[in-house]
Design goal:
This protein has seven helices and 14 strands. It is of the alpha/beta class and 303 residues long. It folds into two domains: 209 residues, Ribonuclease Z/Hydroxyacylglutathione hydrolase-like (Metallo-beta-lactamase, Chain A, 4-Layer Sandwich), CATH 3.60.15; 57 residues, no CATH class. Strands 1-2-3-4-5-6-7 form a seven-stranded mixed β-sheet. A hairpin with an 8-residue loop joins strand 9 and strand 10.
């Protein structure tokens, strides 16, 4: 694929340590590195003193939870904001909200964006999380000295929110846009059509810097987002080429498209192709043999 995304792999930090990263933003990184979380979950803290908000308290790891308690001892946490309900983002909210006496804010439980459409989502997230306060696109959350706008960005999950700190024109992007990797879009909760729409939404905004939950900040944000869009469009073009050449099943397309990928990763690649296929079917570019896109369906040119 031609588009090169300028990923940044440098991430200077220490686990379980409070970092000052801007005048209004602090961060504590959880010790949960993996192929999906990079170096770990970065829990962001905005505000100080009697009005503090915590964004993505992270996984249920004792060291991380204790680090947050110690880091904010003597301050008043008033808000816990959740970008989405994967296990590396929301579970620590439960013990911490009781410790701090703070309310949680989020779009809804896992799968909330799909359940509204009557789509059942398989268990694959923090099914126990239910926000104390439900927020949606355009809602404003305020504290003493800070203002956060909620930006609904479904795609990675159906309940994904970004949070914009207006005073610094900074957007906390969760897993929607990351500096070290593209996001995993896994149907049915993940939705490529919604994801592409959510990326386009960011191009309309005036944010100056992104702070993803995994990895370091992203600058020159519009150029970066456009690269993400171009990358996905090129992947769609590959799929269309396969369909037009007579490959009808995703399992047959993967070896053609992922020639430099280890075969052990083909199942993950197949789900990525399926996610892209959803949008191609939604936009009428490909016909599906079944009522909904699946790994086992057959695909043919729309023309």
């Amino acid at each position: 694929m031609a588009t090169k995304i300028p990923f940044t792999y440098q991430y200077d930090f220490e686990y379980a340590t409070l970092e000052e990263i801007t005048p209004m933003i602090r961060r504590v990184t959880a010790r949960n590195p993996s192929g999906f979380t990079f170096r770990g979950t970065g829990t962001y803290i905005i505000g100080r003193g009697d009005s503090v908000a915590v964004i993505d308290p992270g996984p249920m790891i004792d060291e991380h939870i204790e680090a947050l308690k110690i880091a904010l001892a003597g301050e008043t946490v008033t808000h816990i904001l959740i970008t989405h309900t994967h296990f590396d983002h929301s579970p620590a909210a439960e013990p911490l909200k009781h410790h701090w006496g703070a309310k949680t804010y989020g779009y809804g439980p896992h799968g909330a964006g799909k359940s509204a459409e009557g789509v059942e989502v398989e268990e694959g997230g923090d099914m126990d999380f239910v926000p104390d306060v439900t927020v949606g696109h355009g809602d404003i959350i305020t504290g003493n000295g800070w203002t956060v706008e909620c930006v609904y960005t479904p795609g990675h999950t159906s309940n994904h929110l970004c949070f914009a700190l207006q005073e610094e024109k900074a957007l906390f992007t969760g897993d929607h846009v990351m500096g070290w990797s593209t996001s995993v879009i896994s149907p049915p909760d993940g939705d490529m059509t919604q994801y592409m729409q959510s990326l386009a939404l960011l191009l309309e905004r005036d944010d100056e810097v992104y702070w993803p939950t995994h990895g370091t900040c992203i600058r020159d944000v519009k150029t970066y987002v456009q690269r993400f869009i171009d990358h996905r469009l090129e992947r769609e073009a590959q799929i269309l080429a396969c369909v037009n050449e007579g490959y009808e099943r995703i399992s047959d397309m993967v070896p053609v498209m992922y020639t430099e990928t280890d075969k052990s990763l083909y199942p993950a690649a197949a789900r990525s192709v399926m996610a892209a296929m959803v949008r191609l079917v939604d936009t009428g570019q490909v016909k599906c043999s079944e009522a909904s896109v699946s790994l086992d369906a057959h695909y043919t040119p729309a023309g």
